[in-house]
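Please check this today:
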Amino acid sequence: MELLSKEEARKLFLDKLGHDVFNTPNLKAIAEEVLEKCAQLPLAIVTIAASFKCLTDDFEWRDALEELRTSLKVSNNKEQQTIKIGKQELIEHLIDEGIIERRNSRQAEFDRGYSMLKKLENACLLEVGIYEYSSEKFVKMHDLVRDMVLWVASPQFKVEGHLGLEDFSDEGKWREDLVKASLNVQQHIKNPS
């Protein structure tokens, strides 16, 4: 995913915002932090600038920034990094989940999957790489894009990383209207022998 330079990011932010907040003394520091949260990603800048466009008062900007801080918990923690997944494996999951509809052949289903992934790559929603140990291509989401997706999907989908088996018993984590949960359990179980 191509990052913008700081100057390009600032220009895009101002273009999408429609007015220069950096010349407004009580908004300048807030606007700079908002722009920093966008991590020089064009999609994040366009999306966030659009959501701030109608805000005029400093209290609105402070409130919106607080919401942004809360909803986009971008973590530098190595354990929380976005997981890489092979393209073929991801397409198999998309077929199994019914996201890719059944077609006359498995090849047709995979063609549909590769086309979907290509569109997401072209929109800078997925980054592509090649595993070091093989020639297989993988995809992953940039952390900020992942956080935005999880924020939008959070009412009905839950993603938890690095849970222990005892964490499953905490009923406070599960909602009645939960549709799906993605769990990355990291626990070694000793063989009792």
Q: What stands out?
A: DSSP finds seven helices and five strands in the chain.
